[in-house]
Amino acid sequence: MSAVQERVNPRAYSKLLAKIRPLVVKTEEENERMLAVIEQLMAKGANLKPEEGELLELLGKLVADFEEAYYQPTDAAPHEMLQELMSARGLEQKDLYDLFGSKGRASEAVSGKRSISKGQAKTLAEFFHVSADMFL
């Protein structure tokens, strides 16, 4: 058992699960609902309770499993994958500047003029909750 699980209050976690009702994500609507909860939890930052941290990890896994299968076009180039994920979430290139470290790098990666590095792929994978292989 991890140190985090030991601090989780089972009663509080049960209430949180009952409120959120996490399920295996099978539709885009369910995915959007889970992403909205993930965003709310992430916005708490350091104020995240242990129970919320466990829920965040669970929801991240559910979303990642869905998105890995859902957003897995067979012959898409990495920048096309990135464009599709951005489109699905209503993101613009400027929303990725921090992930790439600069406006120029983000622009080149999104347009396909520059390949996505392994480090950037890992960062993007964490951000979008998908496999880093999608960007390599």
Describe this structure in words.
This protein is mainly alpha-helical. 65% of the residues lie in helices and 0% in strands. Helix 2 runs parallel beside helix 4 and helix 3 runs antiparallel to helix 4. The longest helix is centred in the middle third of the chain and has 21 residues. The chain is elongated. The N and C termini lie far apart (34 Å). The model has no long low-confidence stretch (mean pLDDT 87).
Key descriptive features of the protein:
single chain, 136 residues, mainly alpha, 434 Repressor (Amino-terminal Domain), 2 domains
Number of helices, where a helix is a run of at least 4 consecutive DSSP H or I residues:
8
Distance between the ends? 34 Å
H-E string:
HHHHHHHH
The radius of gyration computed from the alpha-carbon positions, rounded to a whole number of angstroms, is 16 Å
Biggest beta sheet attributes: none
Structural class: mainly alpha
Give the low-confidence spans.
Answer: none
Q: What is the strand content?
A: under 5%
Percent in helix: 55-70%
- The whole-number mean of residue pLDDT values reads 87
The general outline is elongated
Number of domains: 2
Counted beta strands: 0
SSE diagram, text form:
Blueprint: H1 3-7, H2 10-20, H3 28-43, H4 50-70, H5 78-89, H6 97-100, H7 103-111, H8 118-128
Helix pairs in contact: 2-4, 3-4
How would you summarize what this structure contains?
This protein folds into 2 domains: 3-70; 78-135, 434 Repressor (Amino-terminal Domain) (Orthogonal Bundle), CATH 1.10.260.40. Helices cover 65% and strands 0% of the residues. The chain has 8 helices and no strands.
